[in-house]
Design brief:
By secondary structure, this protein is of the alpha/beta class. It contains seven helices and ten strands. The longest helix has 12 residues.
């Protein structure tokens, strides 16, 4: 049975954030809200938790995982960011975008795309996500909470509880979530490429493509 924390979306309770991070550090899988939709998250180095997320989402080894980072400086430890990419990131971070970049050696191999050695990175602006990342002190391995056969992320925390209570360790109820995942932008080819249109406006990137 998973735990179920009701955390205030604007003023997250520090005690509950600490408990959530303790679950992550102990190898737990957590459902948490972001500024786009709810996501599944775990510690980046925990292989068994990552495998559990793969099974929940039925993902193959070619899926681009995302690291949710606290800020741009933390993101820079895990991705190779040139001047052009940095300018784009600075203008749109934090926000509902995931950026695909070349990974640095800090990224565990099991999280990278197996051939391209890329990684998705994002900096969510939602206070709950920010508080989790601040307390954890490292990125969260993260994927949108879109169940197999569905096209939209789950949005009702009580539905998540009834569906996933035996598959995850914690569900954070931060209110209803969005119905769109983040917009995905590939920055590895020199010019930005919009890979997936989600809740982040793709127009600034289309203009530069």
């Amino acid at each position: 049975m998973s735990q179920f924390f009701q955390i205030h979306p604007e003023n997250p309770q520090p005690r509950l954030i600490k408990q959530a991070v303790e679950i992550l550090r102990n190898g737990g899988v957590v459902v948490y809200p972001t500024d786009s939709s709810y996501a599944l998250g775990c510690a980046i180095g925990n292989k068994s938790a990552i495998e559990r997320i793969r099974r929940i989402r039925q993902l193959d080894d070619k899926h681009n995982f995302t690291l949710a980072c606290k800020d741009l400086s933390q993101l820079g430890l895990f991705a190779k960011v040139d001047t052009t990419a940095f300018r784009l990131l600075k203008a749109h971070v934090p926000g509902p975008y995931t950026f695909i970049l070349d990974a640095t050696r800090e990224v565990p191999r099991m999280l990278m795309h197996p051939k391209r050695r890329t990684i998705g990175l994002r900096v969510p602006s939602l206070p709950i996500a920010q508080a989790l990342l601040e307390e954890l002190g490292e990125p969260l391995m993260s994927v949108s909470l879109i169940l197999p056969g569905e096209s939209e992320p789950m949005s009702d925390p009580y539905d998540m509880r009834s569906t996933l209570e035996h598959q995850v360790d914690l569900i954070i109820d931060g209110g209803y979530g969005g119905l769109e995942a983040s917009t995905v932008i590939n920055l590895t080819e020199g010019r930005p490429e919009v890979v997936r249109v989600g809740c982040g406006d793709p127009q600034p990137f289309l203009e530069q493509a």
